[in-house]
Specification:
Elements: E1 5-10, H1 18-34, E2 37-42, H2 44-47, H3 54-71, E3 79-82, H4 88-97, H5 102-106, H6 109-115, H7 124-138, E4 144-146, H8 152-169, E5 178-180, H9 215-223, H10 243-256, H11 260-267, H12 272-298, H13 301-330
Parallel strand pairs: 1-2, 2-3, 4-5
Helix pairs in contact: 3-12, 4-7, 4-13, 7-8, 9-12, 10-11, 10-12
Bound molecules: adenosine-5'-diphosphate (ADP) and sodium ion.
The site of adenosine-5'-diphosphate (ADP) has 20 residues, from helix 1.
């Protein structure tokens, strides 16, 4: 049996989006009080699977750490780290490259989406990404990983890798980690296309709400969000086949910590012209204190660096013994 331990990460590959916040960070904050140990990570090694300008990467890593802290992740309650500063992630990642099978990796839908028609010309790291992600989690023997819906398949792969390692070496060493995918907004969609995920890597800035957007920008993006000609229904069935409407209602529910049913019982019958300003006000009220605090923290990058350095040394107290034991099991 494994002690409950939470791990999750976000790529410093651009600014944080409302999708990251509702799908992941909000849950990181609550889980730090539910479980004795939680580790939250800026996964810079994952970010460089696609090109990152070195200056931007460093800035984005600090800004992401500021976003975590401003959202309520406490460096006193959780271990906050930058992945590259805890070398055991990459070291266990190599072992897992030798455990994972090519066929398993080829089935990963995120790789297929990101590589597109260009699969011969993307980095080897992009292909191997989920094996490193398994190492990020299992190098802590983490039992629970709060994530958005898009990470479900990678978490299944993490379990497959743990099971194959345990089986091949005849041990019960790595846990079967559980994904924690909960809430009204586990998959926030693009504001321009209800069939695409909201993402920091979408070339269209209008498709997403960035955590650093100011009140005017947030309001404008929501006002211009794609919708359909119908108004809001009073029950969930009325959102069937209407992904854009569904998305805005999900966002409203998640931001106000209410169920979708509850929200619809109040706003059902309204036109989007009435609902969108309500949603914009709510988003501004929830996000502007966070972006204000992020800006304040970013005035002192040295303090952020100190927090991450302290986190890395706390993390290594966990990861070094697990890596050492892994090497012993493998015969190293
Ligand atoms: P991005 O896709 O924005 O680059 P990451 O791949 O770094 O984000 O994902 C970080 C976390 O945020 C993961 O747990 C992921 O599932 C979650 N996440 C990302 N986008 C969304 C979204 N649109 N809706 C819900 N959760 C999301
Ligand atoms: Na993602």
């Amino acid at each position: 049996t494994f002690t409950p331990r939470v791990f999750s990460g976000i790529q410093p590959s651009g600014g944080l989006t409302l999708g990251n916040y509702l799908g992941a960070i909000k849950r990181f904050v609550t889980m730090q009080d539910e479980v004795a140990q939680s580790i939250y990570c800026m996964v810079d090694l994952h970010a460089i699977t696609v090109w990152q300008d070195p200056k931007d990467l460093l800035h984005n890593t600090r800004e992401l750490a500021a976003g975590f802290i401003a959202s309520g992740i406490s460096p006193e309650k959780s271990i906050l780290i930058n992945q590259s500063q805890v070398p055991e992630h990459a070291q266990l990642g190599w072992i897992f490259n030798c455990v994972a099978r090519m066929g398993w990796m080829q089935r990963m839908t995120q790789f297929k989406d990101k590589a597109g028609k260009n699969a011969q010309n993307v980095s080897l790291g992009l292909f191997g990404y989920p094996a490193l992600m398994a190492a990020d989690i299992l190098v802590y023997h983490a039992t629970h990983v709060p994530v958005g819906e898009d990470q479900k398949q990678h978490l299944e792969l993490t379990r497959d890798i743990a099971a194959k390692f345990n089986h091949d070496y005849g041990v019960d060493f790595f846990p079967m980690t559980e994904p924690v995918i909960e809430g009204a907004a586990t998959r926030v969609m693009s504001l321009r296309d209800g069939c695409k995920k909201m993402s920091k890597s979408d070339p269209s800035d209008a498709s997403r709400i960035n955590m650093t957007d100011d009140a005017d920008v947030i309001s404008k993006k929501i006002r211009k969000a794609k919708t359909d000609p119908d108004g809001l229904p009073s029950d969930i069935d009325g959102l069937e086949g209407r992904p854009e409407a569904r998305n805005l209602v999900n966002i409203f529910a998640a931001l106000s910590e209410r169920s979708v049913e509850d929200v619809l019982s109040e706003v059902g019958g309204q036109q989007f012209g009435t609902f969108k300003p309500l949603l914009a006000d709510l988003a501004v009220a929830k996000l502007s204190p966070i972006s204000g605090e992020m800006a304040r923290l970013m005035d002192d990058p040295a303090e952020i660096d100190r927090i991450l350095a302290r986190g890395a040394s706390q993390a290594r107290e966990i990861t070094a013994p697990i890596l050492k034991k892994t090497y012993e099991i493998v015969g190293m």
